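Lecture notes, unit on protein representations.

Consider one protein chain, 251 amino acids long.
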Amino acid sequence: MRNQGHSWEETRDRISEEIVSGRLAPDTRLPSEPELCVLYGARRHSLRKALAALVSEGKLRVEHGRGTFVERAPLLNYVIGPRTRFRENLNSQGLTASGETLSEMHIPASTRVAAALQIEIDAPVIARSWRGFANDLPISMGWAYHDLTRFPDLQERRRELTSITKVYHSYGITDYRRLRTTVFTRIASENEAAMLMLRPGQSVLVVQKVDADLDGRPIGFSEAVWAGDRVQFTFETDQPTVLTTERSNDV
């Protein structure tokens, strides 16, 4: 029986996985159709259908006379105000927000984390690293810190409730506000470039923030690294914000 090769759905999913994982970086030019057929074990009509589907999904773009390229993530206008929410920001622009936890651990609070959360230096905190996506393309990654004494089972509640807003509600915090935001830019590290699908030497935007309950008591501190070519920030006028080019390594 003649080998029919992989289906167009299988071919689409394999190429999509390489885009999402970063093995195919933004602006990468795909090989020729014959090369792709060999690479993915697909017949030409299946390959063409797979590529067309990825173009319609916004993961590839065709430049006539030049070839097919991996598309960049859409530019996100991220609004930072008193009540900044990741999912609401993306959903309001027609983007699907998702995220993944990379690690969770209990660590002693550094000087900077302790100052942000208004706790003692070396007090136990919950440290969580994460990565955020817009339409399955990575746009941010970072660390979030919470006082372990105030939120002793935060990890379990987050796994159950999925949303940090819902977790805060479960602790009796009915609402919270952005207390402080600091933004600066730097070159992405090798790991950040790989995780965010950036080219070596590209810039990232670093956003450090402190959230507080309605009594003004800090409840969370985080530092997020954003793909610099995929996001712009809009600050609401009543939001206290610090813009700086200085970077601290004391996380």
